[in-house]
Amino acid sequence: MKRITLATVSLGAIAAIALPLAANAGPRGHGGMKAYMAQMDTNGDGDISKEEVEAFRAAKFTEIDTNGDGQVSPEEMTAHHEAQRAKRRAEREARMFAKMDTDGDGAISAEEFNTHQMPGFQKADADGDGVVTAEERAAMQAQMKERWSKKKAGPTPQ
Prior knowledge:
Blueprint: H1 2-25, H2 31-40, H3 50-64, H4 74-100, H5 110-115, H6 119-124, H7 134-153
């Protein structure tokens, strides 16, 4: 009984968090959230009905409940989260590889590797002399810290 309650609360929390985030994401929202919401919108009408959410949740529960006993154990939940994390990492690495493999031959040559742009270095090298000084690094870190704190704070009220 304890496991069923834990699973129900966990899945309910996921839905309770996901729906408001998606509603606030807007057209430039997080790509992962857009895909997540598109999965729920099974009829593709742009709206998500209660029935679609319930069907999605049932399918997600079945996916997580790998032994099919009708209960999600902590081990099953952890395994599911780890599998999702591994999938996202593999997708990100594949995108990075494809970006560097400019001739599309399935391998990155030394030339492709060495000609890959370094926008971070170029941004940090404020005076463009080809050297990132300690002062330039500190300035870049301060800019990143400021950007991160603004991002965490969210949009300013109008």
